[in-house]
From TrEMBL:
The keyword Lipoprotein does not apply. Coiled coil: none annotated. This is Alpha/beta hydrolase. It comes from the Bacteria. Residues 69-157 form the Alpha/beta hydrolase fold-3 domain. SUPFAM superfamilies: alpha/beta-Hydrolases. GO terms for molecular function: hydrolase activity. It comes from Actinomadura spongiicola. Keywords: Hydrolase.
C-alpha cells in the first residue's frame, strides 16, 4: 500500500469526521459514568509500583469470587483512559461478572514496550491480588478495542507469562475488538509521531508475528463499517489463531461497535457473556 492508502485504511478518526467522533467520545464518558454510578467496586488501585498506574474494579459481589473481564482501552496508545472505559461494567455485574479497567501510561511518554509491560502487569495483579477484591484469578478474560485490541493480543500470546510468575493459561479467553495484530503498517501513518516505532520493533510487538503458545478461546470482533485496515487485520489473525470466531457486526463503525459490550441484548454483549461463562 502507498502511504496515502494506509492512511485511508487506518485513520478511523478521519473516516468518522469530527462531529461523529465527538459524539462517540461523549458516549464513552456518559455511558461509563452511568454504568458505574452506585455500582459496588473499588476504583483507583495501584496495580504497578514501577509506573504507579491504577485500575478500577467494578461489579464485585458479596459472595463467591466472580469471573473478571479485563478491558484495555483504545486510543492508538496515546489517548483515552479508564475513566471513559467502563461502559460494560453494569451489564456484566448483572450477569455475575466483574470488570477491571486499567490505565496505562500513554505514548509518547511511554514506549509501546512499556505499555505492553504495564497491561501484562495488570493481568498479573488480577491473578495475584484479585481474590482480595472478589475476583476469581482462575477466570480472567481480556478484551480491548483498537489499540486495546492489540494489547489484548499481547496478553494472548506466549512467552511473557514466566517473567511475571504466571501460568501460561492465565488468560482463559479473549475478545479483541477492532484489534491490530501486525502493527508494522503503523510505522507509516501519523500515529508513529507518538509511538515512534521502526519496523524491527513493530514486528517484535505484533501478536501475529509472535509465538502463539497456548491458544485460548477468543472472539474477534470487528465492525462492518470499520477502517479497512482493521477489517483486514481481524480477518487475517483469526484463522492464524485457530481457536476463535470472527464476528463482523453490521451497522457499526470503529468507535461504536465496542459500546455494544454494555448491551446484554446485542450480539457482541451476548458473545462476551457467553465467552466469560465458558471459562
Amino acid at each position: 500500500m502507498s502511504d496515502e492508502e494506509l492512511d485511508v485504511a487506518y485513520n478511523v478518526r478521519r473516516k468518522a469526521g469530527p462531529e461523529l467522533f465527538a459524539r462517540h467520545m461523549a458516549r464513552y464518558r456518559t455511558e461509563s459514568e452511568r454504568a458505574v454510578d452506585g455500582l459496588p467496586g473499588r476504583p483507583g488501585i495501584v496495580y504497578d509500583e514501577e509506573s504507579g498506574e491504577r485500575l478500577d474494579v467494578w461489579g464485585v459481589g458479596g459472595g463467591e469470587p466472580r469471573p473478571v473481564f479485563v478491558y484495555l482501552h483504545g486510543g492508538y496508545w496515546m489517548a483515552l483512559s479508564r475513566d471513559v472505559s467502563s461502559f460494560m461494567a453494569r451489564m456484566l455485574h448483572e450477569q455475575g461478572i466483574a470488570t477491571v479497567v486499567p490505565d496505562y501510561t500513554l505514548a509518547p511518554k511511554a514506549t509501546l514496550e512499556e505499555i505492553v509491560r504495564q497491561v501484562r502487569a495488570a493481568v498479573a495483579w488480577v491473578h495475584r491480588r484479585g481474590g482480595e477484591h472478589g475476583l476469581d484469578p482462575e477466570r480472567i478474560v481480556v478484551g480491548g478495542s483498537s489499540a486495546g485490541g492489540h494489547l489484548t493480543g499481547m496478553t494472548m500470546v506466549g512467552g511473557w507469562q514466566e517473567r511475571f510468575g504466571l501460568p501460561e493459561d492465565v488468560v482463559k479467553a479473549a475478545m479483541p475488538v477492532s484489534g491490530l495484530f501486525d502493527i508494522r503498517p503503523i510505522t507509516r501513518i501519523y500515529v508513529n509521531e507518538y509511538v515512534r516505532l521502526d519496523l524491527e520493533r513493530a514486528a517484535a510487538l505484533s501478536p501475529a508475528l509472535l509465538p502463539v503458545g497456548r491458544r485460548c478461546p477468543a472472539v474477534f470482533v470487528v465492525a462492518e463499517n470499520d477502517g479497512d485496515g482493521f477489517l483486514t487485520q481481524s480477518r487475517l489473525f483469526q484463522p492464524h489463531w485457530d481457536a476463535g470466531d470472527l464476528m463482523v457486526v453490521p451497522d457499526r463503525d470503529h468507535f461504536d461497535v465496542v459500546l455494544d459490550l454494555g448491551d446484554a441484548e446485542s450480539a457482541v454483549g451476548r458473545a462476551l457473556v457467553d465467552l466469560v461463562r465458558s471459562v
